[in-house]
């Protein structure tokens, strides 16, 4: 049976269980089981290399001793074992500086749950997972693709969709920022780890030749994630992509710490991220920031944090909603600081629907470097493929659609998709960065009623954002 069919069979089994409600819980249930299976396969590899290897997991709790045998415990006995022994003991694993793997296991299980109510169905899921050999290069390669598909399914899982950024987008941002071996790379809101994986792959393919270089790379690619499900997904994602001990992905909220408390040791060379947007931070979080930048909009606070965390020659590639470009009030003051102290050299305006169905707002890829002020901003309007009205769940953005931007990036000229705006013009508009493409003809007369409605909704969004800006001022 193909790996794709194995995963489909597992999802079908889970749908029969009364305890699992919706895609997010199905993915969460599957991932903690996957984690233990992958961890056990990795340990088999470590045992071959080092006969003295000792697992941080108690012997009876290792996957091989309760899940690997298709005729092993099942039904109520298995359910009782998982709920009252496996989870309880893994949540309470002893941790120490010498037991980093144990710390990772404990951290994974601190916020994981067994949603399934049927031990018989759990046994069926375990038996299916045992069909995958993560020590096989072929199985591992194909499973990476399937795992990516599982992550993408989160876009349909209610609010869980916010944790997933389309991989063509993370890959493009990383390629354009071009992190190097030895540089410290950070995603302060890493979700399922897409930017971290893209950075690992980018640097490995270009520079890593030795084990020491690989260790340097892994120690310098770091992420922080607030919520337990995406944190678990990120850790598993990194293990799947060859990181032995993904301790560099930690649970936390970087906005909860006063900005002034982040000092030189916290600064990084590269930030690549898709900060949460459209939501509000918890009460009091804005007080961690200077008075003139206080707001409840998460994307704006993260932008201030990104600027602060960059080293003197650092660079940044991030996703921002349209509201961050045209908003007034606090947004204007944040953009003024950005343009006065950083070189905001490129804004790639994305087509509609890139984050559908989770978020319908228009988004942009924003690139800036620390060290000198902005003189001009280049814009590139990424067009929709011919015949497509907007991206959808079944037709998302692809790598191929970024190829024209990559060719343009290092040899910039104005064309029907690209234009530049000088700093004086931006300053004259109170740092409003929402510049329309002057090289594209007005296509209003050719738009369908549906497209006109979408345009009206976008304008209403801008009005709402302006009202928020006025409230900030007041």
UniProtKB/TrEMBL annotation:
Entry's EC annotation: 2.1.1.72
Domain N6 adenine-specific DNA methyltransferase N-terminal intervals: 3-128
UniProt enzyme class: transferase
A Pfam family this chain is assigned to: HsdM_N
Catalytic reaction(s) noted: a 2'-deoxyadenosine in DNA + S-adenosyl-L-methionine = an N(6)-methyl-2'-deoxyadenosine in DNA + S-adenosyl-L-homocysteine + H(+)
Record keyword DNA-binding present: no
Keyword Methyltransferase: yes
Sorted UniProt keywords: Methyltransferase, Restriction system, S-adenosyl-L-methionine, Transferase
Name the record gives this protein: site-specific DNA-methyltransferase (adenine-specific)
Provenance organism: Candidatus Doudnabacteria bacterium RIFCSPHIGHO2_01_FULL_46_24
